[in-house]
Amino acid sequence: MELKEKLRILADSAKYDASCSSSGSKRSNDGGIGNAAFSGICHSFSSDGRCISLLKILMTNACIYDCKYCINRKSNNIKRAIFSPEEISSITINFYRRNYIEGLFLSSGIIKSPNYTMEKIIETVKLLRHKYKFNGYIHAKAIPGASEYLIKELGLLVDRLSANIEFTSNDSLKLLAPNKETKKAEDIMNYIKLSKSRKFVPAGQSTQMIIGATKETDYDIISKSENMYNNYKLKRVFYSAYISVNKDNLLPTLEVPPLRREHRLYQADWLLRFYNYKVNDLLDKNNPNFNILLDPKADWALRHLEEFPKEINKASYYDLLKVPGIGVKSAKRIILSRKHFKLDYNDLKKMGIVLKRAKYFITCNNKYFISENYFNKNFIKTNLILEDKETINNNISQLSLFNE
Amino acid sequence: MNNIYIYNNNFISLLNLINILIINNTKPDNIKQIDYNPTLFDNLIKLNIDNNENIINIIIKNTSKNILKTMYYLYLSRDDNKELIIYYFYKNSLKYKDNIYSMRNLKCVSEALKISQYVSRENHKFKGFTRFKELKNNILYAEINPTNNIIYILAIHFKKRLSNEYFIIKDITRNIFSIYDKKDIYIVNGDNFRLYEESHKSDFIEDLWKEFYKTIGIESRKNNRCRMNFMPKKYWKYIVEMSDEI
Ligand code: SF4
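The joint structure predicted for all components is written out below.
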């Protein structure tokens, strides 16, 4: 088979993995080729608006497993291909030299056994690191079920390792992926967390969940994320809107992937990691799904309107962060600037703070932006929903690419 | 009449001039490069400024490294009034030192930081968007069309990762090249430098990349507006996987 066709097949079967981040590593170039940029670099953007940072491919799509949701499952009648370690290395280096990519994201269908697959991945990464002296970014999949000594060896070579949890419960996973067990993925996460060496997986680990293939609620999903962030010190959880690639009576047939829902989950995930929110602030058993019309922070603010408006010149850092439209950067700017000046609306504008959404939830020197009679739930809600509609179409995949 | 002070088309000269103006308590109406075309109301003033690089140390001593860096990024910007913005930014920095970064409510500060961040962001974008092709003698060659004059700071980035390669980056708009010879970076004007080398006609690696690019997008998630937001069309011409789509 021609190399070009192989690349097409093996990129095509890898493209459903959401992760393409190249951040979090400071690997430097010692006489070879490449280094890693801590903040990550996007080299291109695909037709779906997602960042292309890494050469994202499978080593092979000839998998011995039969996960129901996966295009590469054994029972599908599709073209199969396999890359040799040398082929992968040479494409990576050639793409890297021309500045097409930051590095490699290598995953694979299961060949023979988890251990055999891992050995092949290790062989490839070794070739890149040792023969080609490649110091760019490498993200590899740890294959659940592989032996610990292999995870250890791979972890010392790559920047990031990930094992996909796929679904929040073992039952869902067993149903759709009979050969998989949640515990096996979590064992890997735990092993990575416990490692003390700084050279081991320097950019940390991530995982991914599939959204909308099973009955799990947003509450189930985001609780699982919170739990994994706490237990395994994950850098990122990625959410991947389920795309119907196979027909199966255990799976829903979706015309379009649930992108809105995915977007809301990314927003909520962001609130957990940087804004000090807990899952229970956002959702609970009686209210288990995010509002599709409003982002989780605005939704929260509207349900807690008694806490607002916040006075810009007085509110604490975490209170400022609760204001829809004010992010980490803006909150920091406000805190720093108000040491020197009393801030009014004009100052905020000059400071580059976007008031479009924030204005409903703040006062400046005790002044609301219009008559205070308008400070009520219905007025604010209507306006926010209108504005959210505008931005969401532009930025739907933006949150998934925010740097860590 | 507007008093326009003139400097010698380089950063060191500009810093020296600004330093003199501030020491003498002179308030310029504007500061311009030597090739500036004056209007009827302009009074051009050329002070006797030296090109002493020690000015770098003076600036750092009076303010900070960070502030010098911001001034340098401002200098690289395309903004018509950048010299005056640098002057006021420096003047305020003498007073506020690094606190200046939290004084965005002063107009000259917010303007300065906005512009320097624009330069920095554009540089970051080109760390991704620059596309090299291979010339026949293994030299890597890229053409870019940035809005700001980032070719030098961009070359510093590539020097680190491609330290064992020869590379040349051309800024198409300004007709300048940055050249790396596996040791140092040189900035050369296009009037004094011509590239005779040709690249290979059919490029297998480039074809592979285009194939990868086409494949990796998910049809059912197609979102052209979002792509355009992140990768503005004005850059497409020199991004090899996009150039066919224009
Ligand atoms: S293990 Fe399952 S999800 Fe992974 S490639 Fe094989 S069939 Fe697909």
